[in-house]
Amino acid sequence: MRQLTAVDFEELQQFTAKHFVEYYDVQLELVDHLATAIEQNWSLKPDFSFEEILQSEFDKFGVFGFTVLVEKRQWELKHYYYQQFWKSFKSFFGLPKIVLTTALAALIYFITIQLGAYANNFFLWVFAGSGIILVVDLIAYHRKIKKQQKKTNKKWLIESVALQIYGITSLALLLSLTNLFRLLLSAVTVEFQNLIKAAALVLTVLFFYILKKHIQPMIKYEMALTSKRFKAM
């Protein structure tokens, strides 16, 4: 049975790029799909040319070409990483991590008791600092991705989705902190205010930790696997 050559694989990737698939990882997914389809067709129709089968397979995607697949893949990645984020987040509220989470919240609450009248200023500076770090880190991550894209001349859908997730979850956290302070204005006791602030601070720490230690490394690892799989073709 006829098999594709390295030149054919390169031509398939160029074909996907010409048909408005700008993301490298989606290109590789399509190359894999098209290559399998072409070789299967050759097993039944060995006299057909590479170009004839390729065009026939492309026509199966309909009038919108690869666009529908790209949109579908984008939705799947968003859904997957949101699930991973919340899965990691919820793990801190089950045994044995709940012990660490509770201990951290109790420690912060104990600190606020010791600070007394200065507790409000403490939380104000901490939350303001968290917001600044969040924005700066998001900008830095965005610049890092753009720099890498310029260096390798490759855009990854998985990185585009990562930025969206980072931005949306960061915005959600900032809005939550804003609403928190509104809630505290109507809180009955100082102790209750400090308890809510301590819980919010713990959630902020978890947010940073999950993004940095779980989601970003996972994305980097899966990008490496995708590149390695294409090199093996």
Plain-language structure description:
- With 233 residues, the chain is an all-alpha fold.
- It contains eight helices and no strands.
- Helix 4 packs across helix 7 (157-185) and helix 4 crosses helix 8.
- The protein is elongated.
- The chain starts with 5 loop residues before the first helix and ends with a helix.
- The mean pLDDT is 82.
Q: What would a concise description of this structure say?
A:
By secondary structure, the protein is mainly α. It is built from eight helices and no strands. The protein has helices at 6-18, 24-44, 50-59, 67-91, 97-115, 119-152, 157-185, 190-231.
SSE blueprint and pairings:
Blueprint: H1 6-18, H2 24-44, H3 50-59, H4 67-91, H5 97-115, H6 119-152, H7 157-185, H8 190-231
Helix pairs in contact: 1-2, 2-3, 4-7, 4-8, 5-8, 6-7, 6-8, 7-8
Shape: elongated
- Distance separating the two termini: 17 Å
Count helical runs.
8
**How large is the radius of gyration?**
25 Å
Which sheet architecture does the biggest sheet show?
A: none
Strand content: under 5%
Element order, helices and strands? HHHHHHHH
